[in-house]
Design a protein that fits this description.
There is one protein chain. This protein has about 375 residues and is mainly β. It contains no helices and 31 strands. It has 2 domains: about 150 residues, no CATH class; about 150 residues, Jelly Rolls. About 0% of the residues lie in helices and about 40% in strands.
């Protein structure tokens, strides 16, 4: 980050690079996976303070950066501030709840670092801790194991599970796109049974060789179970889209939006339902309703478009049957009554009790 303030930097997989470099103010850097880099995270050594009138071409001193819940594996230097003649360094940086395993020196700070906070980091089999104070970390095996793509995830019994300290409200999902639950796990991975919505991409996923996979990510719910998956936190107006296919008609199932993963109907704010009467409707405050009668058929895909205003706690729902035209299900419906005061949405849930419901290609923009 060379210019700008208040950025959210999350969900990145970086291998064999120079890592993440930070200048500017108020950035949140979380749920990133950094392996085998020359530097994992580089906190800039500023040569100016733009807020005080220095030119925009300055390397703006990093102020109030929060670096938390990242996993750093076998980096030559995990956390670095490079030297600079008359450098201003960084101020009020928080480095917390990160896992550092392997590699060389953990923290190498070569400039002013006033107000730095080091909290609840987990180190294992690293080089020297360097400039990280002993009060800022514990040493224990995090029990990381590589998956099919060689990405290290937490295993059962890890001391990182449920051991993070502090609230860190910006950190609502992990590197796999799975929602964070309290108490959170240290590092970029949250142990969860929720659907994985992000991963390290391979040549088969992108570029000219892509498109040969098994298709878009899908989630199926049945048996009165809730299937949750996280997405980037939304606090204003946004659009959510997905394709949903009921196993029969009628069923009783829905796709819904919430703040955090939910296991009860009352936890969801915006709900688009395949109802037990064989029609599509949506939640409007304390009851379900619809702008008109829209029947659904078994094994037919329906494309949903939800336009959501978190601030006003309202949403509209539009649906397009496979091969058909878009129809209005709901216009400016109120969030479910129990969620009338919710301030953000960051999780998608799929539920069905009668029959099953499959949701695919979930997208927020």
């Amino acid at each position: 980050m060379r210019y700008g303030n208040d950025c959210l930097v999350y969900g990145n997989y970086l291998r064999n690079t120079d890592g993440i470099r930070i200048f500017g103010d108020g950035h949140q850097v979380f749920s990133n996976y950094l392996e085998g880099n020359s530097v994992g995270i580089n906190i800039g050594n500023g040569d100016g303070e733009v807020a005080d009138g220095d030119p925009l071409t300055s390397h703006d001193r990093p102020d109030n950066t929060v670096i938390s819940f990242n996993t750093l594996i076998n980096n030559t230097t995990s956390y670095l501030m490079s030297g600079r003649t008359a450098g201003l360094g960084a101020t009020n940086t928080t480095f917390a709840n990160n896992i550092v395993q392997g590699g060389g020196v953990v923290a190498d700070i070569n400039g002013p670092n006033s107000g730095a906070a080091w909290t609840s980091n987990l180190l294992w089999n690293t080089g020297a801790a360097g400039d990280m104070p002993s009060s800022g970390f514990t040493t224990a095996n995090p029990l990381l194991a590589a998956d099919a793509n060689g990405v290290f995830h937490l295993q059962a019994g890890s001391p990182a599970i449920n051991s993070a300290t502090g609230t860190f409200p910006a950190v609502t999902f992990d590197m796999d796109g799975q929602p964070r639950t309290s108490p959170k796990d240290k590092g970029a991975d949250e142990v969860s049974t929720a659907t994985v919505t992000a991963k390290l991409l391979t040549p088969s996923d992108v570029g000219p060789g892509s498109g040969s996979g098994s298709g878009p990510s899908c989630t199926t719910a049945s048996g009165n179970t809730f299937q949750n998956a996280g997405f980037a936190t939304q606090t204003g107006t946004f659009t959510a889209e997905y394709d949903a296919t009921p196993s029969g008609s009628p069923i009783n199932g829905y796709v819904a939006l919430s703040s955090g993963a939910q296991t009860a109907h009352t936890g969801f704010a915006a709900i688009a339902r395949f109802n037990p009467d064989g029609n599509i409707d949506a939640r409007n405050g304390a009851a379900y309703g619809a702008a008109g009668t829209i029947p659904y058929a078994a094994s037919v895909s329906y494309h949903f478009r939800l336009v959501v205003n978190v601030a006003s706690h309202t949403y509209s729902v539009f649906v397009t049957p496979q091969g058909g035209s878009e129809q209005t299900v709901a216009m400016n419906f109120a969030f479910r009554s129990e969620q009338s005061g919710v301030t953000n949405l960051n999780s998608r849930g799929v539920w069905a009790s009668t029959g099953s419901l499959t949701a695919c290609s979930f997208l927020v923009h």
